[in-house]
Design a protein that fits this description.
The chain has twelve helices and eight strands. It is an alpha/beta fold. It folds into two domains: 187 residues, Spore Coat Polysaccharide Biosynthesis Protein SpsA, Chain A; 96 residues, no CATH class. The strands form two sheets. Strands 3, 4, 5, 6, 7 and 8 form a six-stranded mixed beta sheet that branches. Strand 1, helix 2 and strand 2 form a beta-alpha-beta unit.
Length: 326
């Protein structure tokens, strides 16, 4: 069962691998920079260390590690994820109890490692979305995800045209589903995320690394995924933010448009009241109120990403297959 760390490894995440009980049959750590002696010291002695001598991106790193695996099950763990000691037994039990299952994934837990507000909000958003998702999934997540080797190799692994962290795992999940493989979201399979989020990182990720490529993927597959970040609430929330932004833009000429903007905000809050109630319950009402504008910004960026992605998709179709997304 391999793990990977293509963009830098947290020593806390590495130490958690040593505490796995039982240990996996194989532990493969893939990096694009040499591990320090301190990093290596916290790993089990049997760990297979693989150094990719260039900034590869997770798709290449994961595929590379998977080629070395001799087990019948692959378990991918991101380099900033702290796993729980019973992870291996949990994953084995999931697949033993479901012989027809090809892949499974979990989520971040409700205890993000970075104390900053944006990191807490962003990781809790991921946790909440996955906890509300359909157990019979139509996508995949490699932050903490397992897949049978035969299914992984039948799909030729992750699409390596995604050279930076993007939607390579989502794209693999779409191909698996289209090929008839079964994927399950296991909501109690959780791990702690250590990532420190900044505003610039969030904007860049939501627009360039996820929103635009995800839109192009959905359009190329000719089917709308009604799950996780693309469910009905997310789509209506994105529409509400678009209406609200357009209304604010014309307020100087049409002051009455402020009422439309206010109505759009009220609609956004109503549609997402369960998420805000979740934040209030575990972090307090002040945290939940502070999260609303960031949540609105998230959906606004998603709207721009959908628009740009649709334009690029149409342009690629007009220009021919050489310009299409892989």
């Amino acid at each position: 069962m391999p793990t990977h760390g293509p963009l830098g490894l947290s020593i806390t995440a590495l130490a958690a691998l040593r505490n796995l009980a039982p240990l996996p049959d194989q532990l493969i750590v893939v990096t694009d920079s040499p591990l320090t002696p301190d990093d290596q010291e916290v790993l089990p002695a049997s760990t297979i260390l693989v150094h990719v001598p260039f900034r590869s991106g997770p798709a290449i790193a994961r595929n590379h590690g998977a080629t070395l695996a001799t087990t019948d099950l692959l378990l991918f763990v991101d380099s900033d994820v702290v796993v729980r000691p019973d992870l291996i037994q949990r994953v084995r039990s999931i697949f033993e109890d479901n012989p027809g299952l090809s892949a499974a994934f979990g989520s971040y837990d409700a205890n993000p490692g970075d104390p900053g507000f944006l990191s807490q909000y962003r990781n809790l958003l991921h946790h909440y979305v996955h906890q509300q998702g359909k157990e019979r999934a139509s996508t995949f997540w490699a932050g903490l995800g397992a897949i049978r080797v035969d299914a992984f190799r039948a799909m030729n692994g992750f699409d390596t045209s995604y050279a930076v962290p993007s939607i390579e795992d989502i794209e693999l999940g779409c191909r698996l589903t289209a090929a008839g493989y079964t994927i399950r979201l296991v909501k109690d399979l959780q791990a702690q995320h250590l990532k420190r989020w900044t505003a610039i990182q969030m904007l860049r990720t939501d627009l360039l690394c996820r929103g635009i490529p995800w839109t192009r993927l959905v359009l190329s597959r000719r089917g709308l995924i009604n799950d996780l970040s693309l469910d009905r609430i997310a789509r209506l929330s994105t529409l509400a933010c678009g209406v609200g932004l357009a209304s604010l833009a014309v307020v100087p000429r049409f002051p009455i448009a402020l009422a439309a903007a206010s109505a759009a905000l009220a609609f956004l809050i109503a549609m997402n009241h369960r998420f805000y109630a979740f934040l209030s319950r575990i972090r307090g009402p002040g945290f939940a109120l502070r999260a609303i504008p960031w949540h609105a910004l998230f959906y606004t960026v998603c709207g721009f990403a959908a628009l740009i992605g649709a334009i690029l998709h149409c342009e690629a179709r007009l220009l021919g297959p050489r310009h299409s997304q892989s």
